[in-house]
Design goal:
Distance between the termini of chain A: 64 Å
Oligomer: heterodimer
Helix content of chain A: over 70%
Largest sheet of chain A: none
Largest interface: A-B, 35 and 44 residues
Number of helices of chain A: 16
CATH class of chain A: Mainly Alpha
Distance between the termini of chain B: 59 Å
Radius of gyration of chain B: 20 Å
Order of helices and strands of chain A: HHHHHHHHHHHHHHHH
Strand order of the largest sheet of chain B: 5-6-7-3-8-9
Helix content of chain B: 25-40%
Strand content of chain B: 15-25%
CATH architecture of chain A: Orthogonal Bundle
Strand content of chain A: under 5%
Number of helices of chain B: 11
Number of strands of chain B: 11
Number of strands of chain A: 0
Structural class of chain B: alpha/beta
CATH topology of chain A: ABC transporter involved in vitamin B12 uptake, BtuC
Shape of chain A: globular
CATH superfamily of chain A: ABC transporter involved in vitamin B12 uptake, BtuC
Radius of gyration of chain A: 21 Å
Shape of chain B: globular
Chain lengths: 298, 306
């Protein structure tokens, strides 16, 4: 079997085609927004948000609604709630997030435990099932994804300032609070988009890993976003192929590929990789004095 | 209520170029029971260049936040070029170095362009005028050659100049610099101070918070001595007197003899920070600093000695 056949063989199954499309879109959307998640240090918040969505998913499931609808309502609600809590300052923000996260997740599991097929359903929700994506869900993913990406482009300048230097945002009177909530809601929507593919437990990897890899390779936010999107899509698609041929679960396969890419880049990245930094550190004696000279000259 | 959540920024405030750049009347700021600023009243003309000195926790940063309109005072009135803060985009702010994530994926140009965010406006992209403003600002701080560097790849002094350029691109008329010289090597300090001098000539008002009394005396025409309230405001010679310094710094002020080099047996002034305690500070003898021989500092030392 040659390479082309290897790539084309799974495409004879419609569920694989839908799965690949979903994996591709989720990879692009999550990784793009993931740049803000890691630059703002919101990894914990992203994970918490993903878990807190569970009751919404379960409720939608019990009522026979599309899962994304329940997830979206609860996700946005939780995002706004966390935003409000962190403003009060009575308890530390991460503590507040932890309480909401654990409580909400427990509620979701409790609700689901009333159903007979409990274990199977829980596994499905926790780890996703990209091969069960329907055409309707695919369209929903596309719609929500375009919405997220359009918002990121439209508010690019403002989101950049608020992430890089919140004080400047305050001095310039940018609509700070609006932008913060906007970012939280975008993250919630992105998590909902990713639920079907990797499930609640592994959503965080989609948000964080490709973006972290991209940061090691790039020096500007737009290129970091594009690199992250490409890496995310690549990891997801090749992860799905891997799961097809090696017969492992699709969600974990995608995350494992993304993690492997990260480790490779972490070691071999030209300037910021382990080896690259070692090399730069070795030559450091000359640049420092050169830099001083440069300053004096000016 | 809804204004807080609106995506639209408030309108830009009126800018009276002939008004005092900064006018504070009876400003009070309290955090809970702690009074950070107590009845602050002063006025600065346009183009003033003021060093704000005082012990750690004296309220220097709070004062800046009030002037920038980030902190709302519990009492009193602030006017920046004639109108209350809020919507003033003429206030340029250079953050303390430790507030910035230097690994952030932005280049020098990106950072400077941030200063234009309000001028460009929501949903719009930077135009020619914006890019020109960025280039001019970078040229003025002599950073145009490094415009495409990632900010983490610069030296400390270069990083400060980038943020200064950002304020210039913002077309700021009032610059607030919080400890801009801390941690910079001497050449970088000199360059930065030289640029500030050039800006003053253009009528830009500059407020610099600093720990370094020597620099305050040597480079600034006006010194504001602050410890929750205004202890003194005036020329360095008038403000940096032993009596006033003791009043501001209290027990944190130490007179040390000799410095490191026994040959230079001049007394030196050591101001310890409350955060680290006098003992933890390296023996910084001001007599070792190159600026010692500016007359005002000599005066200070003279008065402390007596």
């Amino acid at each position: 079997m040659n390479l082309l056949e290897l790539l084309l063989d799974p495409l004879q199954y419609p569920f694989m085609v839908r799965g690949l499309l979903a994996a591709l879109m989720v990879g692009v959307i999550c990784s793009t927004l993931g740049t803000y998640v890691i630059l703002q240090g919101m990894a914990f918040l992203g994970d918490a948000l993903a878990h807190a969505i569970l009751p919404g998913v379960v409720l939608a499931y019990l009522l026979g609604w599309p899962l994304a609808v329940g997830a979206l309502i609860v996700g946005i609600g939780t995002a706004l709630g966390i935003g409000a809590l962190s403003h009060k300052g009575e308890i530390r923000e991460d503590t507040a997030i932890g309480i909401v996260f654990a409580g909400s997740f427990a509620l979701g599991v409790a609700m689901l435990s009333t159903v007979q097929s409990y274990a199977v359903d829980l596994a499905h929700i926790l780890f996703g099932d990209v091969l069960a994506v329907s055409s309707a869900e695919l369209w929903l993913t596309l719609g929500l994804g375009l919405l997220v990406l359009a918002t990121v482009v439209l508010f690019y300048k403002e989101l950049l300032v608020i992430t890089f230097d919140p004080v400047l945002a305050a001095v310039l009177r940018l609509p700070e609070r609006f932008l913060r909530y906007l970012l939280l809601v975008l993250i919630a929507v992105t998590i909902v988009v990713a639920l079907q593919t990797v499930g609640i437990a592994l959503v965080l990897a989609m948000l964080v890993t490709p973006a972290a890899t991209a940061q090691l390779l790039t020096r500007r936010l737009p290129t970091m976003m594009i690199t992250a999107a490409i890496l995310g899509a690549l990891a997801n698609v090749s992860g799905l192929y891997l799961s097809y041929y090696v017969n492992i679960a699709a969600g974990p396969a995608m995350v494992l590929v993304a993690t492997a890419i990260f480790l490779l880049v972490f070691v071999f990245a030209p300037q910021r990789g382990l080896i690259g930094r070692r090399l730069i550190a070795k030559n450091q004696t000359i640049p420092t004095s050169a830099r001083k000279y440069h300053l004096v000259q000016e | 209520m809804f204004a807080k959540f609106s995506p639209l920024p408030p309108p830009v405030a009126h800018h009276g170029a002939d008004m005092p750049s900064v006018a504070l009347q009876h400003i009070n700021v309290s955090y809970g029971d702690v009074r950070a600023l107590d009845d602050i009243t002063f006025q600065l003309p346009r183009g003033a260049q003021v060093a704000i000195v005082g012990p750690n926790g004296a309220g220097k940063s709070t004062l800046f936040n009030v002037i920038a309109g980030i902190v709302r005072p519990t009492g009193g009135r602030v006017d920046i070029y004639g109108t209350e803060p809020g919507g003033h985009i003429c206030v340029g702010y250079v953050p303390q170095r430790n507030r910035i994530d230097w690994r952030f994926p932005v280049t020098v140009t990106d950072v400077v362009l941030m200063g234009r965010t309000r001028k460009i406006g929501l949903f719009r992209r930077a135009g020619q005028a914006d890019h020109r403003a960025v280039q001019e600002a970078l040229a003025r701080v002599r950073m145009d050659a490094l415009a495409n560097r990632q900010i983490g790849e610069l030296s400390g002094g270069q990083q400060q100049r980038v943020f200064l350029a950002r304020a210039l691109a913002q077309e700021a008329e009032l610059l607030l610099l919080d400890e801009p010289l801390t941690g910079l090597d001497l050449p970088s300090q000199e360059i930065l101070l030289q640029i500030l001098e050039e800006l003053r000539a253009q009528g830009i008002t500059i407020l610099v918070a600093t720990h370094d009394l020597n620099q305050a005396a040597a480079y600034f025409s006006t010194v504001l001595l602050l410890n929750h309230r205004v202890i003194a405001l005036g020329k360095p010679v008038e403000v940096l007197t032993a009596a006033l310094l003791r009043e501001a710094y209290g027990s944190q002020l130490h007179v040390v003899h000799g410095g490191v080099d026994p040959q230079q047996s001049e007394d030196a002034l050591l101001v310890a920070d409350s955060c680290c305690g006098a003992a933890a500070l390296p023996p910084v003898a001001y007599s070792e600093r190159p600026m010692l021989h500016s007359p005002s500092v000599e005066d200070v030392l003279e008065q402390v000695r007596s």
